[in-house]
Amino acid sequence: MADNLEIIGREALAYLALKHAARERALPKSRAAIRQCANSIRAAHRQQFQSAQELLAQAADLLREMAEELRDHQDIFYAGFVQDAQKEYAEAATFVALVQEQPIPLPPDLTIDWAPYLNGLGEAVGELRRYILDQLRHQNFDRCELLLSSMDTIYALLTTVDFPEAVTGGLRRTTDATRGILEKTRGDLTVAVGQAQLQRTMLNLQEALQRHTS
């Protein structure tokens, strides 16, 4: 009855060895893609948009290679590390597009799944906050208002997605974090605009007094 156990063991080991090899090839590419996305975001913060796009293209190539290598190993593909890379790619692509006032790319454009895409949208809000704070230092209030509106729109979209966490990849946590970032940024912008208006009023008053006394 147990005569075929040796065959079973041999075939099992061969099968798992193939799966392990596929994972070992894909895992470094996931890490590399995440690194390229982070570098793309940093380049966009420095207004180096051509470099940001080139880094995004490199990340896209790595994601495509992972998808091809794991085509016959869907359990490994959906183990989590591919989705992490897809999420970072969506975040970077969204951020780079918005700071250039370009349309946000869709999942088919990026060749990624909806769950990591939506989580990436939410995480892009954090990078937009960083960008807005930098713009506030230069008093680029109109640009800040435009980006804040994009943050608000992203949050409004995420709140409409009401599915189990297993389906959305933990989107509820991302949405909750997005709300906090949005409200904090709105408060910072409101204070900054108010201070700028007060400074202008005081400067105008000072100039009026100087004209009156001269």
Proportion of residues in extended strands = under 5%
Low-pLDDT segments, ≥5 res: none
Structural category is: mainly alpha
Distance between the termini: 112 Å
Helix content: over 70%
How many strands, which pairing sense, and closed or not: the largest β-sheet? none
Averaging pLDDT over every residue, what do you get?
91
Order of helices and strands: HHHHHHHHH
At the first level of CATH, the class of the domain at 8-112 is Mainly Alpha
Query: Helix count?
Result: 9
CATH fold name of the domain at 8-112: Methane Monooxygenase Hydroxylase, Chain G, domain 1
What characteristic shape results from the CA principal axes?
elongated
Radius of gyration computed on alpha carbons: 24 Å
> What is the name of the CATH architecture of the domain at 8-112?
Up-down Bundle
The number of E-state strands comes to 0
Keywords:
about 210 residues; mainly alpha; Methane Monooxygenase Hydroxylase, Chain G, domain 1; 9 helices; about 85% helix; elongated
Molecular structure report:
The protein is mostly helical and 214 residues long. It has a domain at 8-112: Methane Monooxygenase Hydroxylase, Chain G, domain 1. 84% of the residues lie in helices and 0% in strands. The protein has 9 helices and no strands. The longest helix has 43 residues, at 171-213. The chain starts with a helix and ends with a helix. The model has no long low-confidence stretch (mean pLDDT 91).
Please outline the helices and strands.
Layout: H1 5-45, H2 49-69, H3 74-77, H4 81-99, H5 107-110, H6 114-137, H7 141-159, H8 165-168, H9 171-213
